[in-house]
Every structure is written in structure tokens, then in C-alpha cells.
Amino acid sequence: MKRIAILGPSTFSEEATRHFLGDDKFTYVSYKLISEVFNATASGETDLGVIPIENTLEGSVHLHVDWLVHEVDLPIRAEWVFPIDMNLIGFPHPEGQIDADNPYKHIRKVLSHHVVPAQCNRFMKRYLRDAEFEQVSSTAEGVRIVSQMKDPSVAAIGTAIASANYGVPMLQREIQDHKDNMTRFLLVGKEASELASSEQMKTTILVTLPEDYPGALHQVLSAFAWRRINLSKIESKPTKKKLGNYYFYMDIVGTLDSVLLPAAIQEIEAIGCQVRILGCYPSYSYHSE
């Protein structure tokens, strides 16, 4: 069976991956850091890796995009979107010492992944405004630490599966700002994923503009526009080579097997743009079980 690197265990990455890929065809290998997920897949220690790349509330996870672009050469093999329910997890305050207006006032420290505060901003401002936020390597790692400390003044924000696996009570479910909080995950690796076909295909490219070509970005976008090719995402990011130099990260609804998309890429290359293809892959929608 193919080995898949995930951030875990008991993380949103594991929950999302098991939902979409199941437990029959793959072996999951957990790593504490996302850098370890990338490196394990790049070195061949695992066949594929799962990377959370974008969230409804926070947008792109820039650190993970940078790894994909600058640190490793791992083609994107698939993507899926999964709902993210953030939960406050910890040990309740001794009975009789609960503040009626704020039942979580006793919590002095909150442990979780660095992307969490942006997704739970309203709850944290209302109930945890006096608590220190401490970044840990994953949401599950925060729950694990809380399980060992058994200190009611220290809580974590994480998954329901982490609460169950580490035996730490759920203090409040679904504390994210919006019910439709979703995270997009990428499956990356040097080997093909061998997944079921999808009705929607996407292609991700990096476009670096020529320095001496005024209006290059307009011409790039025009090459897609007049062919009615849909860009589902476009972001500018520094190349890290020269101040003022940027590349454009583009997600395109379409496949390289079509006639139109390769022609658009040829057109923008003709004006001196550098194009790097990060992957052409199936895109899967979430279906609840």
C-alpha cells in the first residue's frame, strides 16, 4: 500500500484525509511538523503527502505555499475541501468557581496551531481575551499537552477526534467564526495518486513576468480571458531573488489535456513569461457521510 505523510495524529489533516481516501488502500504516517511531511515525501520515505493549503477564513497558508514553490519539487496530484469545526478542549474548572458571564475566564493559556486564532477570532475575543495564546506544531499536539498537564487553566483548540483520543473533555463545540469554515487540502508527491476520476480538473501554474515588458500581466490575463478559461485563484508572491520581482500563483479550472489551456500557456511564454506547472489534478467536493 502507498504510504501517505500527514500532519498528525488526531489532526484536521488526518480527519480530512481518512474521509476522502479511506483506510483500505493507504498507510498513513504521522509527522509533528509540516516540514517533515514535505521532506518525507520529497525523500521517498513516503509516497505522497497531504498539505493544508487554504482556509475559508484565513486564506492561503503562505508557509505551505512557500514550501511547495521554493523548497521541494512535488507535483500536486489531487485536492479536496473539508469542513473544519474548531472546539475548545480542556479540563473544567472546579465546580462552584465558574463565572456566570464567562465560563472560560479561568483559562489563562490556549495551545493550538498558528492558523487557529484567525478562524476563532470572535469566540476568543469574547471568552479568552485574557488568555495567552501559545503556538504549537498542530491542533492535536495542543490537546496532547493539555492531557498531560491536567491543568484547568490551560486549554487547547482542536478536533473532536483529538478530544476523544487523548481523553480531554470538550468544553465548547464549533467555536469557529463561521459554520461554513472549510480547508482545502493538496495531495502531493512524485508518484501518481491512482484516485477515482473527478468531473472537475484543475491545473496550478506559477507565472513569472518579464521585467522589460510593460502590460505583461494584462496580456497574461487576456490569454485566459478570451479563451474563457476560468482562473479560480491568482496570488502575487515575491520570488525571493530580487526586490520588486514577483511570480503569480494561479489555480485554473481546466486540464492540460484540453486544447485551450496549453495554447494559453504557449501564448504567455511567447511574450517572455516563465511558466512552471505545479500540477494538473482532480478536484473533489466534500460529501458528508
UniProtKB/TrEMBL annotation:
Its EC number is 4.2.1.51. The record marks T183 as: Essential for prephenate dehydratase activity. Signal peptide: none annotated. SUPFAM superfamilies: ACT-like (SSF55021), Periplasmic binding protein-like II (SSF53850). Residues 205-282 form the ACT domain. GO terms for cellular component: cytoplasm. Keywords: Amino-acid biosynthesis, Aromatic amino acid biosynthesis, Lyase, Phenylalanine biosynthesis. This is Prephenate dehydratase. It comes from Paenibacillus whitsoniae. The gene is pheA.
